[in-house]
Each structure stands twice: as C-alpha cells, then as structure tokens.
Write a structure and sequence with these properties.
There is one protein chain. By secondary structure, the protein is an alpha+beta fold. It has one domain. Helices cover 35% and strands 22% of the residues. Strands 1, 2, 3 and 4 form a 4-stranded mixed β-sheet that branches. The longest helix is centred in the middle third of the chain and has 11 residues.
Length: 123
C-alpha cells in the first residue's frame, strides 16, 4: 500500500527499511529504519541500502544494468541518485537479511600498504 502511494509518475528512486533476522528463537529481529533522502549524507555513506526500486529509464541513463551491477552498492546509488529528479523513502521493509552472530565472525586482516601508497601518490 505505501509503495503504491509513493509510486507517483515523477518518483525516480524508492528506498525502504531493512529487517535483520536472528537465527536464535529467543531473539527478535532488528530493524534498520532509514531517514529521508539527503544527497550530502549519501555522499558520506550508503545509508539508503542495497535494495532500491528504480525507473528503467534512469538505469539506462546511469550506464545500464550491467554497468551498475558491476559496481558496489554505494557507487551504484550515487550514480542513480545524482541523475534522479525525485527520490523517496517508503516506510516499508524492502530487504530482509540474516544477522551474523559474533561467534561466527572471523577477524580479517587488512593490508594498508597499497592504500597508503595510493594516497601518497595523489599528493
């Protein structure tokens, strides 16, 4: 119902909330409620998430589906939203993801040498 109300002819991008399911029966799912659209906030981090409803024409203008799926979600969302005329948040769950438990998380090491080298070469 909320999606139909927001799907006006001039809306180019819709985004919504996320539910994180937990695999333990004694825990309730958590919800990630997203705020209203802000281009400044989107430039700093991908707060609108990975699941969007986008007009096909806008996808084509942003390089096409193949180009957009070859990038990460933040880059894709920046490309789409910079071309969109109207972006709306819908107060509905657009995405359901399983939450990782801390006991299953494995630490990852990061080699910062290449990042540091690239940063210094820009100076």
């Amino acid at each position: 119902p909320a999606l139909r109300r927001k799907a006006a002819p001039d809306v180019d991008v819709l985004y919504g909330d996320t539910r994180h399911d937990v695999k333990r029966e004694d825990r309730l799912p958590s919800f990630q409620r997203r705020p209203a659209f802000s281009p400044e906030r989107l430039r700093s981090h991908n707060y609108i998430g990975e699941t969007l409803v986008v007009r096909r024409q806008l996808v084509n203008e942003a390089g096409g589906l193949a180009a957009l799926t070859a990038t990460d979600a933040h880059d894709r969302n920046l490309r789409l939203c910079e071309r969109a005329k109207r972006i709306e948040r819908v107060a509905e769950i657009f995405n359901v993801t399983p939450s990782a438990t801390f006991c299953r998380l494995q630490p990852r090491s990061c080699d910062s040498t290449s990042v540091t080298r690239r940063y210094r070469s820009r100076r």
